Amino acid sequence: MSQAKHLIQIWDLPTRLFHWSLSLLVGVLFLSASIGALDIHELAGEGVLALVLFRLVWGVLGSQTARFSEFLGGFAAIQKYLVHRDSKSVGHNPLGGWMVVAMLVVLLVQAGTGLMANDGILFQGPLAHRVIGMTSDAASAVHHRLANLLVVLIVIHITAILLYWLVGKDNLLMPMLSGKKLVTTSVKTIQFGSSILAAATLCFAILAIVILLTVL
C-alpha cells in the first residue's frame, strides 16, 4: 500500500534564485559568444563565477536540501536509488546530486579559464596579462573545449527532467519554481538556512571576484 503524500517546502528561495539566475546567465554566455558580444560574455562569466562560489558555500552552510552532504552518495546509494527508487534526500537524488557537482565543477573551470583566456584577436580575459602566454593559451583551449562538455551536461539535465515527467510522472520543474513538492508522510521537516546568511554568502562571493579582478 502506497503512503499518502502531502505538499511541503523542500527548496529555499536562495537555491531557487541561484538555479534560475544561473540558467539565465549560461544562456547569455552561449548567445553572447555566438554573436561576438564578448564584453557581455565576460560580464556574464563573472556573474556565473559569483553564483558558483555562492552555491559551493551554500552547499556546506545552507538549507538541508541544498547541502552536498544531504544528496551526495557513493555507488551503493546510486544502486539503491536505481533499484528501489529510494533516496535519503527529498531534493536531489544521488544521480541528480552528482550532476549538480559536475555542472558546478565545469562552470567553475570555465569561468576560471575565461578570466585567463586570450585568443589574440577578439578577446583577452581580465587576468590574461597576469599569466604567461603558454598558460593563457592553455586556458583558452580548455575554455573552448569545455563549452562542448557543458552543452552535453545541459542536454542530459533537460532530458532527465523530461523523462522523469513523462515516464516517472514526477515533475521536477515545479518544485524549483514554487519550492514545494508532494512527498510521503514519512518525510521529516526540512531545516532551512538563514536568508541573511544567503545574502552574506552572495556578497562574499561578489567581493572575492572584485578583489580577484582589481587587487591581485
Protein architecture, described:
With 216 residues, the chain is mostly helical. The chain has eight helices and two strands; from the N terminus they run βαααααααβα. It has helices at residues 13-35, 38-61, 68-71, 75-84, 94-116, 133-166, 173-178, 195-214; strands at residues 5-9, 180-184. It has a two-stranded antiparallel ribbon with strand order 1-2. Helix 2 packs across helix 8 and helix 5 (94-116) runs antiparallel to helix 6 (133-166). The longest helix has 34 residues, at 133-166. The termini are far apart.
User: Approximately what portion of the residues adopt beta-strand conformation?
Assistant: under 5%
Q: What is the averaged pLDDT score? A: 90
| Cα gyration radius (Å) | 19 Å
Listing every helix as H and every strand as E from the N terminus to the C terminus, the arrangement reads EHHHHHHHEH
Count of alpha/pi helices: 8
Strand order of the largest sheet: 1-2
Low-confidence stretches: none
Fraction in helix: 55-70%
Structural class, from secondary structure content?
A: mainly alpha
The total of beta strands comes to: 2
Give a short summary of the structure:
The protein is mainly alpha-helical and 216 residues long. It is 67% helix and 5% strand.
